[in-house]
Amino acid sequence: MKPLCSVLPVLFSLLLNACSQVELRATGDLGVVIEREQGSAQIVNTSKPAMLSRIEGLGDLSHASVVFSRDQRYAYVFGRDGGLTKIDLLRDEIVKRVVQAGNSIGGAISQDGKVIAVSNYTPGGVKLFDADTLEQLADIPAVYGEDNKLSKVVGLVDAPGQRFVCSLFEGNQIWLIDAKNSRQPQVQKFHNIGKQPYDALLTPDGHYYLAGLFGEKGLALLDLWQPELGVKHILQDYGKDDAQMPVYKMPHLEGWTVAGDWLLVPAVGRHEVLVIDKRDWSLVKRVPVAGQPVFVMSRPDGRQVWVNFAFPDNQKIQVIDVKDFSVVKTLQPGKGVMHMEFTPRGEAVWLAVRDEDRVMVYDTETLTEAARLPAQKPSGIFFSNRANQLGL
Hints:
Layout: H1 4-21, E1 30-35, E2 40-45, E3 50-55, E4 65-68, E5 74-78, E6 83-88, E7 93-99, E8 103-109, E9 115-122, E10 125-130, E11 136-141, E12 143-144, E13 149-150, E14 153-159, E15 163-168, E16 173-178, E17 186-190, E18 197-202, E19 208-213, E20 219-223, E21 231-234, E22 257-259, E23 262-266, E24 272-277, E25 282-288, E26 293-298, E27 304-309, E28 317-321, E29 326-331, E30 337-342, E31 348-353, E32 358-363, E33 368-374, E34 378-383
Antiparallel strand pairs: 1-2, 1-34, 2-3, 4-5, 5-6, 6-7, 8-9, 9-10, 10-11, 12-13, 14-15, 15-16, 16-17, 18-19, 19-20, 20-21, 22-23, 23-24, 24-25, 26-27, 27-28, 28-29, 30-31, 31-32, 32-33
């Protein structure tokens, strides 16, 4: 028998060799593509466009969204069936899945990365969970009115100060939730903010929360630096004399964009993108576009804004140059462009082309196709750099 001292170097060498064969994976390179009809999600590499794995068994993903842990290792998927699923992006596996409600519309992760908040339609309210274990920490029913009805909760975002902000669709309210004590959160309620807030945006600096109103003209604005001033109505005169048009798909306000001093937002039911001066919240311009805009998303440097559309124009993408707010390019990636996501520094944008069963990648400088990947009815695309951004 060989002495132990002579065997150990050999074993150590074999171990090193085995480790060298393992493909290391950087979390900053990763993203998630939702495959809505399959109840699955692809884990993708965003620097060298490729699918790495497919995670199945995620439930109803017809309105799914994703947030990421601070270290970008874990993705939290919010399903329409009330499912909350934690995925390990390095091990390509589900860590834990809980069905916490009957109908969920999205969620957020706290500033310190320790608390997951979920907004629910059925029953209406917000629930808080431990990001590590998915243990439920708190249940905040969205009660409103004298008869204590429950409202659908929309527009849930994270905000500085370990807070969350959300809107009550039927309740016509905005709630500011202080989750420093996550088992006993404190809720500040703003009433009569406008009829039927349907989604919301947090500005990238965490300063302003804006809720779109479906039941009346204008937007509801809450200054999170001075919440004691209450909610202010802006753009109340926009479109008041225009003929009403059918709304084919509600625009997503979390797809609004801030580019410098400008806020670009989709006009509800109209073929326009609105340009708002966020210094005084005045309407600067109405940009004509090819259809009813759904997502209006800015390249990270703010120079370009990419717009997709509701049916029957959802095969198109238009690119707006913020220099003069002109449409500089109309692309036709394929039928059913559902969502867009820019790479962290904006050299490329990924498009989910649902009805063509593919994801397309475009070079944002040349506006030409750079790659395409197969995907089963893709919808949302979410990259892990979102972990370092507020309100996403």
